[in-house]
Design goal:
The protein has 8 helices and 10 strands. It is α/β, with parallel strands linked by helices. It has one domain: Rossmann fold (3-Layer(aba) Sandwich). The protein has a 6-stranded parallel sheet with strand order 2-5-1-8-9-10, with helices on both faces. Strands 3-4 form a two-stranded parallel ribbon. A two-stranded antiparallel sheet has the order 6-7. Strand 6 and strand 7 form a beta hairpin. Helix 1 (15-28) runs parallel beside helix 2 and helix 7 (144-158) runs parallel beside helix 8. The protein is globular.
Length: 213
């Protein structure tokens, strides 16, 4: 099956939540999936969650080769820490893992699609250099159509392929917006949309568009 790059329409949107669920589901099916989060700013809680989903096959530094303490974008955190960041080094770290393990690999981005990693290199550029299909994680609540369609437009303009959209119902009110957004977004984007329930602890209703061997 494919490896994927997982981005979001915003920070705190549920990328790690979904990535961990998908990793655990695949590993439970005997597929040696591994989750990576190359850039992490602030607390390393997300990296620890992915480590557990990986059955601790990788060290925290292998999952997350770039850890910056300020809870900011990578570029802003580098400015605060006065620390240079070389994206090519991070790409090589990811390649070292993909050459050693069979995968598939679920590579989580930092924040949203246009978050800056350096002044002239953004999450978009990192995903494009990895050349993986993209999964978008979005909130199911009011406002998601605008955020999601802008993200889709930018990803398509970059030349990256979008595999599908995960709409996360966690912390979303049960209202008309969340009830209608998945179908409306699927219609407007032409992409498959998977609804991730607010209380999901597994992926028994696994999205078929991700594909299993």
């Amino acid at each position: 099956m494919n490896s994927f790059f997982i981005t979001g329409t915003n920070t705190g949107i549920g990328k790690t939540y979904f990535t961990a669920l998908l990793t655990r589901h695949l590993r439970g099916q005997g597929i040696p999936a591994l989750a990576l989060k190359p850039f992490c700013c602030g607390e390393r809680t997300d990296v620890e969650i992915l480590s557990k989903a990986n059955d601790e096959v990788l060290t925290l530094n292998q999952i997350n080769p770039v850890h910056l303490l300020p809870p900011l974008s990578p570029y802003a955190a580098c400015v605060v820490e006065e620390r240079p960041l070389v994206p090519e080094d991070t790409i090589q770290s990811v390649r070292n893992i993909t050459e050693k393990y069979s995968g598939p690999f679920l590579i989580e981005g930092a924040g949203g699609w246009l978050v800056p990693i350096t002044k002239q290199y953004w999450v978009r550029d990192f995903a494009r250099d990895l050349n993986l299909p993209v999964i978008i994680v979005a909130s199911a609540g009011l406002g998601t159509l605008n955020h999601s369609l802008l993200t889709i437009e930018s990803i398509r303009a970059s030349g990256c392929k979008i595999a599908g959209i995960v709409m996360n119902f966690h912390n979303c009110p049960v209202d008309m917006a969340s009830a209608t957004n998945p179908a409306i977004l699927e219609e407007l984007s032409g992409l498959p949309v998977y609804s991730l329930s607010a209380s999901a602890t597994d992926l028994n209703d696994f999205p078929a568009w991700i594909g299993l061997p």
